[in-house]
Structures are given as C-alpha cells and as structure tokens.
Specification:
Length: 95
C-alpha cells in the first residue's frame, strides 16, 4: 500500500502561538500513525523566494493522512495554527 504524506510550507508570524500549535499537533500526528520526517525552518531554496518552515509527515496511507487532517482534534490545533502562521498544505500519496 502506498504511503500518505502531508507536506506544508509554513510562514510563522507568532512564534509563541505556533509553539502551542506544535504541542497540540504532535500527539495527534502520532495518534493517526504519522511520523514527522522533516521539520526544517531553513530550507535550501533553489527556486522561488519564500523562506518558510517546511514539514513533511509520513502516514501509513493517504487515507490515514486524511483522517488525521479531518479529525476534530486536529481542527482545533489547525485553528491555533491559523492564528500564528500562513500555510500551504497538501496531502499526497507516495512510496
């Protein structure tokens, strides 16, 4: 079965609030079988100009990634993230 990935670029505006989001979201990621494989605030940008935090979370399947993203507990964490940052986020299937 192909794995599912959450890929996000996050431009943090409020560091303190974003730390609250991380504390809320990390246990939820684990609950849905996710594993953070990249969390890098200083990506090596080769094209484009946006220097933002990059995060990649691996799930057992795209279905699990969707369940995580659509869960009530992550909706609460997501509301906190929206107060602290601008985000581009995709879910994608891969190897």
């Amino acid at each position: 079965m192909a794995k599912g990935y959450l890929v996000a670029r996050i431009q943090v505006h409020d560091t303190e609030m974003f730390e609250k989001f991380k504390k809320m979201s990390d246990p939820i990621i684990a609950k849905y079988g996710g594993k953070i494989i990249v969390r890098n605030p200083n990506p090596d940008i080769r094209e484009g100009s946006d220097s933002s935090l990059v995060i990649i979370v691996e799930f057992k399947s795209l279905k699990n990634a969707r369940k995580f993203y659509e869960s009530d507990s992550y909706k609460q964490a997501r509301a906190v993230r929206k107060l602290s940052a601008s985000t581009d986020l995709i879910l994608v299937e891969g190897k």
